[in-house]
Amino acid sequence: MNIYSQNIYEVIENNIKKHVLIIYNISENHYVGLTVHTTKSGNITYIESINRFIDINDLQEYTKRNIKRISLC
Question: Which of 1, 14, 19, 29 has the fewest CB atoms within 10 Å around its CB?
Answer without folding.
Answer: 1
